[in-house]
Each structure stands twice: as C-alpha cells, then as structure tokens.
Design a protein that fits this description.
Elements: E1 4-5, E2 13-16, E3 41-43, E4 52-55, E5 58-63, E6 78-79, E7 108-113, E8 119-120, E9 124-129, H1 135-149, H2 157-169, H3 174-178, E10 199-201, H4 212-226, E11 231-238, H5 246-256, E12 264-268, H6 275-293, E13 299-302, E14 307-312, H7 323-336, E15 340-343, H8 353-358, H9 363-382, H10 393-397, H11 403-410, E16 419-423, E17 434-437, H12 443-452, E18 457-462, E19 475-479, H13 482-487, E20 494-495, H14 506-521, H15 528-531
Parallel strand pairs: 9-10, 9-11, 11-12, 14-15, 14-18, 15-17, 16-17, 18-19, 19-20
Antiparallel strand pairs: 1-2, 2-3, 4-5, 5-6, 7-8, 7-13
C-alpha cells in the first residue's frame, strides 16, 4: 500500500494517506523533510518562491517561500492562487465516456407522482412563514401537532428532562438526576397518517428589513419548496405588511408550476380576527390536508426522475480522493440514465472554472457561469473578503490549506458529463443532465438552495462530520474515511473509506451509493438526518456568505 497519492501526472504535490514521520521515503525517491500529517500535502520537488503549485492537474496555490522536496505545505508557505479563466477563451469539449449503467437500465424507484409530471421521494405537508414575525406562531403549531404525529415529530429528550425535574422535586441528589438515561425509542406508535412523511416547519429570519432583492429571492425559494415534488400541500403564514408579499410568492409559484393544484392555505395575521382564530383555523386545515394526502401511495417511477443535489461540508484532505469522486461517479451514472445531478457551492468551484466552461453545452451557458462566478467574487471582495477565505479552520487543519485545493476536490462531485445548464439562486432545474447552481459554500445555505431548485434527494459528503439535513429532501451523509464513519455512525449513512487504500474502486462504490439513493428515494432506507429530525433551512442573504 502506498503511503501517499499523486492524483494527476502534472501535480507537484502528493497527499499523505497516513501520518508520515520525517525521513520517510515516498514515491519517486522523495524523502519527507518533516512530519507530514495524514491528509496534508508533501512537495514532490523543490519549490521556489513564486512557483505555482499543481494538484488535480490545476493550479491550487503559489509558494510564498521556498519549500524543499519532501517538505510540508502549510498556510505559512503557500497562498491561494488559480488559473485565469474567460468564457471567450474556452475550448468546447462535451465529449465524455459515459459509464456502464446496464445494472440500472429499466429499474425504477417508488415515488409520489404529482399532477405536473414530477415525482417526489417524500410526501410532506409544509408550513412556512413569509416573515420572521410569524416564527412564534409556527412554533406554537409545531408543538400542537408533535405528539399526535408521533416520536419522529417530538424530541426524545423531553422525557429525560421531565424525569430529572421529578427527581429533584422528590429530593433526590444531583448524582441521581445525572444517572438518568435516555429511554429506548418504541416502535409501537401507530401514526394516524402512515403515508405522510411529516409536517415540516421552515423557520427563518428574513422577509422584511432587508433589500427588496432579499424579499424577492425569499419568495422564489419558498415557491420552490411549495411546488417541490416532495411537498403535497402547504400552509403559509403572513403578517401582512412585510417586504416578502404574498402576491410575489403567488407569482413565483405560477412561474414554477403554472397549473399548480396542490392544497395551499394562506393566512394573513393582520386580516384575522385574532391570533388564536388564525392558528386554530390553520391547524384544522392541516389536519384535513393530512387526511387528504395520506390517500396518496408510492408508485414506480423511472430513475430519470431522480434529481440529486450534491453537497460537501466539513471537508477534509480525503474528500477529493474518496467521497467526492464516488459522488462524481454517481453523477455520471445518473446523467446516463436520464437523471439530473446539481452541483452547487460556487466559492468551491474556484480554480476549475476553465474546465467547467469547456464542458458547457453552449457558449451562452459558459458565459452565464463566468458572469455569476465573477459577480459573486466581486461582491465577496467588496465586503473585505473573497473566495480565498472560504476554507474553515477545520478544513485547513485537515489539509485544505487554500480554497483552490478545496475547490479542485469539491468539483469532483460533478463527474465528467457535459454541463447542460447554469442556474442562479433561487432558480429551479428544468433541463435533465448536470446543472450548476449558484449558492454559497455554507452547508445549510447550499442544501436549502438545492432543495429549492428541485433536488428530491441530496448526497452530502463530509470528512470531519456534520449533522446537516433538509426539511423536505432526504439527505444522505457520505463519510470520506472509515474513522469518521465509525466515530460518528449516528449521523453517517455511507463509508467511502475503502477507496483510499484501494480496497474498493470508485466505480464499484459509485454503484453501491446509487443503489442506496434508489432505496432512499423509495422510502426503503431512512437517512440518519431524517431519523434525527435534522430539518435545516437557511435562506441565502445574497452577497454575504461564502
């Protein structure tokens, strides 16, 4: 087994697959000059100050001081640097080697068919506020229905806290309080609505006080959720005077689904006789709606109806060589089957713009990608930041010392197929094939946008571990390494670690992951984020987040 990995013949660095002490011989006769922690990069030749550093076959940084052959790359001796790009200079190349998908030809998943032809992987009733002023009312409604809808809608920690309070009232000692354990979850609860996957509440902090563009984007995002194939009906609460007006929401719904016919109930508090009357009416409507959508049943659907959002977060130095390439293989398989992968996180495509523009199916698509990338970068720089600041402290500690290194690995999620469309936030997917979606790199903002764009399954790769999920779209967590998969097994669904040491191929594990996607879409497998009720929702306030 090799102790390091050189990803591309052009690369001037290699990835340490394990902790390497100083004086360890590695590939090409190079000997480490210092301790190289696992996941970090070692120079394969002497690098002078000003030399470009190559990894994944692209520029990922520049030496800001001399680095000896066998030396460790750090934030002290390397700075972010990328190759310049221009759509005008692109070399169009949409040829690619489609993978063998014979094992999936003709296969189906069991989904919920909507009248507009789209297919959901869940059957959800959605409750959304037009403005943060309504968040409390949503919380009251959520509490009101939690126990009726069962353990999945109610915190299992509530009984623990109640038992501790009871012991304290009885005069028990602190040691006795702390000895209490979580109760084992019971499987004997019978939901009154077995064909409903839950009532989901999208609390947020926007809707008023920001710019009109913020309000319009929020309305577009909420419309994406309301018209989403995983959503069977929705309740909307509006205060009445906010920037995010109901009329804008209705326009955005019509734009996404002109023949929208699912149950939709809108309540304006300033037009209601009382808060109590509004909440009571909304709860009654939800109950009737749940009875209605509970009559829907899963039916076979072709795999071409899968729209898979691709996300990474808590990334590490193995993300770009295990989990992300595996996801890229799934992406290519999905495209071959007629499905739709969505690659987002534009700050984490920094440095691979040229390759992606070459893969665009048209000049207009390439130019739109270039424009969105450059406008986003300019906005970030205007507030004193920039794409270079995207890597988090955790990323850096685990070997992703420049945004370009992080981006080159993150882009592997998109596989090798042509780019058929480029979407701005919060637009919705309309063309099958690989789509690029402008979002921040932040986990929850990006997954929120992916669901709003129409993803009916999300695959989320992580090297450090994160609980992130989504309110309406089941989110599969893929660990980049087996250590993480074991340590945080309660939040991880798939271990891609065997790829790192050559125990399994990317092709084979891509097939395994696609099978898990199909099982998830059919309701046969429940991802950890869904089991844990990780219903994250965070709209993007444009121009602030990386």
């Amino acid at each position: 087994m090799n102790s390091t990995l050189k990803i591309d013949p052009k690369d001037t660095v290699s990835v340490a697959l394990e902790d390497l002490p100083a004086s360890t011989p590695i590939e090409k006769g190079v000997t480490t000059q210092a301790t190289i922690p696992a996941k970090h990069k070692v120079a394969l030749r002497d690098l002078k100050k000003g030399d470009r550093i190559y990894m994944y076959g692209v520029t990922v940084g520049v030496a800001i001081e001399s680095i000896p052959e066998g030396g460790l790359l750090t934030t002290e001796n390397v700075a972010h640097e990328i190759d310049r790009f221009s759509a005008a200079d692109r070399k169009s190349d949409t040829t690619w080697s489609a993978p063998d998908v014979s094992n999936w030809q003709g296969k189906t998943f069991m989904g919920y068919h909507r009248s507009n032809g789209r297919v959901g992987t869940q059957n959800i009733w959605l409750v959304v506020p037009m403005v943060f002023c309504e968040n409390r009312n949503l919380a009251v409604m959520r509490e009101a229905i939690a126990e009726t809808l069962g353990k999945g809608q109610r915190s299992k920690y509530e009984s623990l806290f109640k038992r501790m309070a009871y012991l304290r009232a009885q005069g028990a000692s602190k040691e006795q309080w702390l000895a209490e354990e979580l109760e084992l979850e019971s499987d004997d609860f019978l939901s009154p609505f077995p064909n409903v996957d839950g009532v989901k509440f999208l609390l947020h902090g926007l809707g008023c006080g920001g710019t009109r563009d913020d309000a319009n984007a929020l309305c577009g995002l909420l419309a994406g959720y309301i018209t989403h194939p995983n959503v069977a009906g929705a309740t909307v609460l509006s205060l009445g005077c906010q920037n995010a007006e109901v009329r804008i929401l209705e326009q955005e719904i019509a734009k996404r689904d002109p023949s929208f016919d699912r149950p939709l109930h809108i309540h304006v508090q300033q037009e209601s006789p009382s808060e109590e009357a509004m909440i009571s009416r909304a709860l009654k409507e939800i109950f009737v709606g749940l009875d209605q959508i509970n009559r829907l049943e899963r039916q076979p659907a072709p795999l071409s109806e899968l729209v898979v959002g691709m996300e990474c977060g808590g990334s590490d130095g193995f993300s770009g060589i295990s989990a992300n390439p595996i996801l890229g293989n799934v992406s290519d398989k999905l495209v071959t089957l007629g499905g739709t992968p969505i690659l987002a996180e534009f700050p984490e495509l920094c440095g691979v713009e040229g390759e992606l523009m070459n893969r665009c199916v048209s000049d207009s698509t390439a130019h739109r990608f270039e424009k969105l990338m450059k406008v986003y970068a300019t906005r970030a720089e205007a507030v004193g930041s920039g794409f270079h600041a995207n890597p988090s402290p955790g990323n850096i500690a685990d070997g992703l010392i420049t945004d370009a290194i992080k981006s080159a690995g993150a882009a592997k999620k998109g596989g090798t197929s042509p780019v058929v469309d480029v979407l701005d936030y919060p637009e919705q997917v309309t063309n099958p094939g690989l789509n690029l979606l402008c979002t921040p790199g932040g986990d929850v903002e990006s997954t929120t946008a992916l669901a709003g764009a129409g993803a009916n399954v999300i695959i989320f790769t992580t090297g450090l571990g994160t609980p992130t999920g989504n309110a309406i779209t089941p989110t599969l967590k893929v660990a980049t390494n087996s250590i993480l998969a074991k340590r945080m097994s309660d939040i991880i669904d798939f271990d891609s670690g065997p790829v790192i040491y050559g125990q399994k191929s990317i092709e084979a594990m891509g097939g395994e992951l696609l099978d898990l996607v199909v099982r998830t879409a059919s309701g046969e497998f429940t991802p950890a984020a869904v089991r844990l009720g990780q219903d994250d929702f965070l709209p993007w306030k444009r121009g602030i987040s990386l």
